[in-house]
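A reminder from the course coordinator: this example appears on the midterm review sheet, so study it carefully.

Given structure:
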């Protein structure tokens, strides 16, 4: 029975992986956007983490996770006679499938190894596989999703070393652990927080077997040198030399740590109370399982790893729910289900309902139209200006080189009157072609506004068909889109806000024109 349920949940995970929901801009701008610009000829936009004087993001973990698949795709594309570069949307979906496979194979395998008792193991695997976090966050290209797998396999390697499952003369597990730990640190500086308590188990082992410690230290040192070389080469404007590596190395984890030690820097991203992770983010991520965590925990090294991670992350004042992704499989594999049949049935029903609702919300509708709309914009021959309002930043690399002529303006929080001023400046002159259904595509220049349908501020302007002011022609609409950053409970009230955001779900693109004197018409 549990095998059939598990296979069904794998299909559910794959379905969500292939949904174009957009959980956070970091899933593009801290990963695929960077590497796509290196592997392909796509023009990209690097965020401040990569362009500051002291860059805080390492490209070293990005190459094996995203770079190698992109190189493989390019090789297959050229080898099969493909003309030009492979379309970005194909790369986008392949990376989603890759994340699905990586988590389905590596994460589930790690949980299977970490839970020794068969009955508890089956429950743990099903809980992890049925979590909306596994369906959504773990199938997206987050560094947090990669960190989840790295943390889990670090615990597996520690367990193998201490339990003596390897051959006595083998140094393989300590060597691999050294590589994995350095990879985890360069992926996210928070990674060591999850190994504070599990790492203590290695101290007596290494005291008895110093050669194993030497193997781990040597592999870690070599991996660190390679990682620093990758970052130094990426961030140095000229071809690097040994002098650059020795005297001017770019050590991104150190830069990241120094940046996050400053409260002023964290304040730019939002400050939270120390209990945000514990009382807010954990219930948001695991729902009904939070009660089991506090009432019926199964004390294990996995749980201790999660606790140490939550404790350290709570010290920093900027606390997003996705920072806790590595703790979710550790917690879900460390809870005990109610033994009373009635309570068990009630809890299971609540668990299914919670993950179904959150899965659909986050895995399908959350900013779900941004990626499809950007693919649509890449195919508009007249598009030269695109203004995105009240949406997440669109991934530039999905434009397939269109951004050589298309300027994308992200004005998410711009007041409505300022938006209209920008549109008035950028709108092209209304021509006879604009008044016909599709002839406007033959124009050389075109200005587009992309905004959610829930942006009711635009309503008075959209029907304008007169000679004065701006005119909006809707050319694209995608219904599976919710803008949860546009909730105005105080002004609109709860019911009106939900009616607006949910009832008017969707995103649209309008081609914007304006009246011009005859001499100004093109």
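Designed residues:
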């Amino acid at each position: 029975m549990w095998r059939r349920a598990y296979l069904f949940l794998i299909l559910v995970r794959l379905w969500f992986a292939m949904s174009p929901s957009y959980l956070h801009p970091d899933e593009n701008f801290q990963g695929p956007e960077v590497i796509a610009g290196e592997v392909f000829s796509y023009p990209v936009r690097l965020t401040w983490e990569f362009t500051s004087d002291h860059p805080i993001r390492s490209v070293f973990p990005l190459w094996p996770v995203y770079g190698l698949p992109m190189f493989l795709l390019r090789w297959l594309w050229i080898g099969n006679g493909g003309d030009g570069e492979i379309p970005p949307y194909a790369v986008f979906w392949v990376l989603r499938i890759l994340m699905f496979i990586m988590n389905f194979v590596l994460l589930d395998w790690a949980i299977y190894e970490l839970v020794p008792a068969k009955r508890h193991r089956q429950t743990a695997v099903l809980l992890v596989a049925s979590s909306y976090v596994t369906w959504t966050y773990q199938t997206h290209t987050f560094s947090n999703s990669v960190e989840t797998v790295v943390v889990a396999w670090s615990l597996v390697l520690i367990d193998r070393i201490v339990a003596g499952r390897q051959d006595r003369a083998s140094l393989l597990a300590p060597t691999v652990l050294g590589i994995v730990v350095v990879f985890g640190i360069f992926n996210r500086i928070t990674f060591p927080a999850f190994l504070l308590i599990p790492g203590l188990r290695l101290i007596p082992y290494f005291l008895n077997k110093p050669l194993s410690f030497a193997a781990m230290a040597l592999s870690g040192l070599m991996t660190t040198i390679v990682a620093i070389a990758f970052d130094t080469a990426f961030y140095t404007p000229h071809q690097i030399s040994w002098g650059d590596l020795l005297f001017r190395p770019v050590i991104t984890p150190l830069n990241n740590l120094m940046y996050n030690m400053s409260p002023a820097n964290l304040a730019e991203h939002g400050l939270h109370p120390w209990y945000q992770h514990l009382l807010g983010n954990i219930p948001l991520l695991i729902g009904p399982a939070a009660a089991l965590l506090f009432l019926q925990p199964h004390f294990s090294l996995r749980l201790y790893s999660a606790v140490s991670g939550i404790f350290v992350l709570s010290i920093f004042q900027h606390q997003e729910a996705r920072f806790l992704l590595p703790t979710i499989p550790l917690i879900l594999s460390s809870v005990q289900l109610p033994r009373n049949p009635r309570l068990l049935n009630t809890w299971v029903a609540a668990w299914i309902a919670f993950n179904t609702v959150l899965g659909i919300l986050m895995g399908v509708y959350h900013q779900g139209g941004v990626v499809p709309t950007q693919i649509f914009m890449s195919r508009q021959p007249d598009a030269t200006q695109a203004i995105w309002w009240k949406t997440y930043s669109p991934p530039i690399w999905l434009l397939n080189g269109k951004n050589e002529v298309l300027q994308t303006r992200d004005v998410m929080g711009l007041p409505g009157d300022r938006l209209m001023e920008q549109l008035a400046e950028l709108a092209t002159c209304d021509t006879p072609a604009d008044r016909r259904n599709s002839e406007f595509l033959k124009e050389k220049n075109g200005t587009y506004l992309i905004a959610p349908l829930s942006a009711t501020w635009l309503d008075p302007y959209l029907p304008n068909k007169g000679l004065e002011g701006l005119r909006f022609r809707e050319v694209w609409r995608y219904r599976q889109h919710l803008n949860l950053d546009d909730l105005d409970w105080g002004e609109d009230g709860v019911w009106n806000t939900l009616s607006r955001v949910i009832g008017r779900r969707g995103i649209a693109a309008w081609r914007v024109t304006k009246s011009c004197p005859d001499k100004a018409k093109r």
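The chain has a mean pLDDT of 89. The first strand starts at residue 383 and ends at 388.
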